Structure formats: structure tokens, C-alpha cells
Amino acid sequence: MDGKTTEKKKSAKRGKKISELERKRDKYDKQHDNARGKQPLKKKKVRERYYDESKNKAQTKIRFDKEPVPMNEAKWNQPKKQSLPAK
């Protein structure tokens, strides 16, 4: 009788712990999505070649894709330029 009650208590504790961890996961997923939305983007030029049958020529089309700025290229991550001392 004592063994069954301890098993029930352990399973109840596991259930609580799992639900707590799931809540934390959801919270951090939301934070991650918000951070992705605020991430700076840059426009990248993409050239596409296609064949225009009406003109019987190959044509080039330019489109601009938005992509996240890499950490090493971000403006806020660049060191400040040191000015030269006055003589």
C-alpha cells in the first residue's frame, strides 16, 4: 500500500515538472520569435536569368531579397573609430 502512494506522488511531481518546463519552453519560444522580428535586415541584390521567347533572348531580372545582417557586419557591433590626438 505504501509503494503505490509513493509512485502516485512521484508521477504527480513528474507531471508538474513537465508542465512547468513546457510553459518555460513556450515563453522562450515567444521571446525568440520577438527577437527575430526585431533583427536588422539588409537588402541583397539577386540577379535571375531567364529566356524571353517573344524576343528570343536571354533576359536578366533583378530582385531584392531581405536577409538578416550578420553579427560581424552590424553597425552596433563595430568598434568606435579612434580620433588622432591633437598636436
Distance between the termini: 90 Å
Order of helices and strands: HEE
- Give the quaternary arrangement of the chains: single chain
Number of strands: 2
Biggest sheet character: 2 strands, antiparallel
Tags for this model:
87 residues, alpha+beta, two-stranded antiparallel ribbon, 1 helix, 28% strand, flat
Please explain how this structure is put together.
The protein has 87 residues and is an alpha+beta fold. It is built from one helix and two strands, in the order αββ. Strand 1 and strand 2 (57-68) form a beta hairpin. The longest helix has 37 residues, at 2-38.
Question: How would you briefly describe this protein structure?
Answer:
The protein is α+β, with helices and mostly antiparallel strands and 87 residues long. The protein contains one helix and two strands.
Topology, element by element:
Blueprint: H1 2-38, E1 41-52, E2 57-68
Antiparallel strand pairs: 1-2
